[in-house]
Amino acid sequence: MEQFLKTMIELVTTYGGKILLALLLLIIGSFVVKGLTKAAGKAIDKTKLDATVKQVAKNAAKLLLNVILVIAVIQILGVNMSSVIAILASCGLAVGLALQGALSNLAGGLMILIFKPFKVGDYIDSTGAQGVVNDISMFYTKIMTVDNKQIFVPNGDLMNANITNYSYAPNRRVDIDFKITNDIDPEFVKGVLLTAAKATTGVLEDPAPFARLTGVDDDTFIFTVRAWCETASYWDVYFDLIENCSKSLAYYNIDDPEERIAVRIVKED
Question: CATH number of the domain at 171-268, please?
Answer without folding.
Answer: 3.30.70.100
